[in-house]
Amino acid sequence: MMRFISILFLTLLAISNIECAAQIASSNQSTSNKSGIITGADQTDKYLPYLKGKRIGLVANQSSIIGRKSSVDSLLSLGINIVKVFGPEHGFRGNASNGAVVGDEKDAKTGISIISLYGKNEKPTKAQLADIDLMVFDIQDVGCRYYTNINTLEYVMEACAENNKELLILDRPNPNAYVVDGPVMTDDKFKSAIGIHYTPMTHGMTIGEFAQYLNGEGYLKKQCKINIIKVANYDHDMPYVLPISPSPNLNTQQAVMLFPSLCMFEGTAINEGRGTYMPFTILGAPALKGKYSFSYKPVSIPGMSEQPRHKDAVCYGLDLRNYDVNKLRKSRQIDLSWLIELYKAYLDKANFFTPGRANQDVSAFDLRIGTDQLRKQIIAGVSEANIRKSWEPGLQKFKAIRAKYLLYP
């Protein structure tokens, strides 16, 4: 009798899991088919059986969703044993400011340990991986060298390789995959927390493709065993509207699309909208008063920008909230015109580019761009056409390398 009850219970449990998976799949269809694109995470039928019976470590943040629910909640409801969650910059819930150190914690809802990869250690330790059978990486990226999710990806892959752990990547579209542009970083002296890869400023790859690039181009001492759940119905030219903000200051699709062009200003005297609810869609500085009529005042906003540049001062500059980002898609380029324009308009040119490392001729701008050449070209008044011409040899070489690792047209 007890054996019959046990069999009945297990059967009902299996049916319940199947029904739950079906409900999630139905939710996925309703959210994904608007564009035809189906993320790797939304294709639960392709990886759920592989997770069963394993102790799972999940690299995730607020952008990690299955259908309309967080990946953590969804996988737990399907009987997956998540023993740890690893959070990148901005934390597991995505509510920490840029660059803020994030500590380890316990998830109040589930009791799962949340390990910060932007606190005591950027790379998972041997001890942190000891009770994990399989690591899963599910984070939305935006395709820029200076967006730190690809750094986290490398550190996770390195840790998995060293500790003989497999990494399952639930791939997601890159909203800026149409553009491969900017100077290629070629010198170690420009490496920093916002750039450790020898790519252009925008690399045009998804996280899954970038993982193959890291394995294939020798970034790791030992290759990581990876398994990628590809995005369905996707190619690099397809527009993709992010369902969740990937970080606190990329809170609109406009900001996501302008980010590759406007993040350059973080190494200058120009505020790029941090300290407002319009980050990466406006540009300005107090010193531009009289040059531009548009103005705004950056303030401290907890969870977004506590100490924005020019805090509590009125800034004057450009309002790009209604700029047609399709122009960027058509040109397949980062916009350089705003940088050139604001440098010309800024009277105190000696202080336009902010200092970087002490005792080195490397500015904060250089670290973001990956070279000092662009800064020197802007100062010298080199034309945009000639600046772009200087990028071409590096871009063509990188595109040939990139082509080996692409999963999508």
Automatic annotation (TrEMBL):
| Any one GO molecular function term | peptidoglycan beta-N-acetylmuramidase activity
Signal sequence interval, chain numbering: 1-21
Question: Is the keyword Signal in the record?
Answer: yes
Ranges for domain Peptidoglycan beta-N-acetylmuramidase NamZ N-terminal come to: 56-253
Q: List residues of the Peptidoglycan beta-N-acetylmuramidase NamZ C-terminal domain.
A: 257-408
**Which InterPro entries is this protein grouped with?**
NamZ, NamZ_C, NamZ_N
Keyword annotations from UniProtKB, A to Z: Signal
Write down the superkingdom of origin.
Bacteria
Q: Does the keyword Signal apply?
A: yes
PANTHER family linked to this entry: HYPOTHETICAL 460 KDA PROTEIN IN FEUA-SIGW INTERGENIC REGION [PRECURSOR] (PTHR42915), PEPTIDOGLYCAN BETA-N-ACETYLMURAMIDASE NAMZ (PTHR42915:SF1)
The name of this protein is: Uncharacterized conserved protein YbbC, DUF1343 family
